[in-house]
Amino acid sequence: MRPRLFATALLLSLVLLPDAASAAFVGHGGTVRGVAVSPDGRQALSAGFDYSLILWDLAGQTAVARLIGHEAAVNAAAFLPDGRHAVSASDDGTVALWEIETGRLLHRFAGHRGKVAAVAVSPDGRLAASGGWDRTVRLWDLEERRELYAIDAGDNVNAVVFAPDGIRLLSGGHDGSLALWRVADGAALRRFAGNGFAVNSIAVTPDGARAVAASIDETVRLWDLTGAAETVALYGHDGPVLAAAVSPDGRFAASGGADGRVRVWLLAAQRTVGDFGGHEGAVWGLAFAPDGTRLLSAGADALVKVWEVPEGAEIGAATGTATATAAATGGHDSDPGARLFRKCGACHAITADGVNKAGPSLYGLFGRRAGTVPGYPYSEALRSSGLVWTEESVDALIDLGPERLTPGSKMPLQRMPDAQDRAELIRYLKRATNPAGGG
User: Fold this and answer.
1) Is 50 a residue whose pLDDT tops 80?
2) C-beta of residue 363 within 8 angstroms of C-beta of residue 352
């Protein structure tokens, strides 16, 4: 098992998002890596870099709840067929099982020795499969809450998906190949030789005959699962393709790329029928709604967007998001301290209404004891440090680095060796995070 720098005890909470109605599909504190739609099409679940999942009401485009329980970035999520449960996969090496109605974490499956990049649920809802960067595919019994077996995939696994028959499982990984496994015992059924370029995501058509794979070589590749042959490579993205999805009726495939674009392909004609721009940064996740008329995309810009298919009109586009985000992170402030804070703003909110992101909110930072912001899953090392945040301790943190000031904590903050830069940043933080104003 890789070294764990976070606490072994799990802090779980369900945090209602403030003013959700005015922030449709805006809520994550960093890249959104995955998105899933409930079987009834009423809700969506997004997986974020900020260690959390957010449950969304699609009709009202509102954030319902934030699910906290993972101890690192969350990469993927999938609903169970009952719509009342979901699973997620994380950089913390675990797969989590959630009860959606309460936001309760029912179980964490541990076994992977490293990042879990992908997770999928069997058609009957009894099993989950996960793919990890420990070069394994693992199968989990969701009812008995135990690992059934692990498959040596030969290289890091980026994608897993069950075939519609529930008998076969498909995986794709860093070496560019696809592998078909028998669910009953994990036996290898077939391997589809790739071209050496990593497969980032896989979707299977409803008839189970073809797979659609997103590849780092800028292509969307269609595979014939019955003939063990790659059928065609589709070109359109300007950069690696990171996400793939297939519509419930099998007519369309969708792809998302590092170019920030979403493309919709008519599979029968093998051509593009939609090309959507709108994300500022890579598109990491895609999911069709059950009716096939809507497509959700998850991006590096911390947004989840909804599109009409195949027209490409964005449904309920959020307005003022970039401005609001920039203001919250000092993006439009000429203050040098505000400019220095921009990178910190990906992980930390500083305003009174700011939620915890990958890191806790910094509002009211100075004079606060470390490890005390409600709802944030701190490491034991930080909770028990006895540290109080002052100008001196914040300066020491960004000068020495957390590995020296708070050894054993999970803070990824990098050092800032320039004393003048540290002074400017601290001065800005004292002003921006002070509940009394000024400072």
Assistant:
1) yes
2) yes
End-to-end CA distance of the chain: 46
Looking at per-residue pLDDT, the higher value among 250 and 312 belongs to: 250
Give one word for 154, left, alpha or beta, with left for phi > 0 and alpha for psi -120 to 50.
Answer: left
Residue whose C-alpha is closest to residue 158's, from 107, 205, 213: 213
271 pLDDT more than 60: yes
Instruction: Quick: pLDDT tens for 312-327.
Output: 888 875 444 443 444 4
Half-sphere exposure of 127 (CA within 13 A, CB side): 22
pLDDT at 330 (0 to 100): 47
Three-state DSSP at 384 gives coil
Q: What DSSP state is assigned to residue 422?
A: H
Considering only CA atoms, which of 139, 141, 158, 136 is closest in space to residue 149?
Answer: 139
C-alpha to C-alpha distance for 407 and 369, rounded to whole angstroms:
17
Region at 435 (left for phi over 0; alpha for psi -120 to 50; beta for the rest): alpha
pLDDT at 344 (0 to 100): 74
How many Cβ atoms sit within 10 Å of the Cβ of residue 115? 21
Nearest in space to 348 (alpha carbons), one of 11, 23, 24, 30 = 30
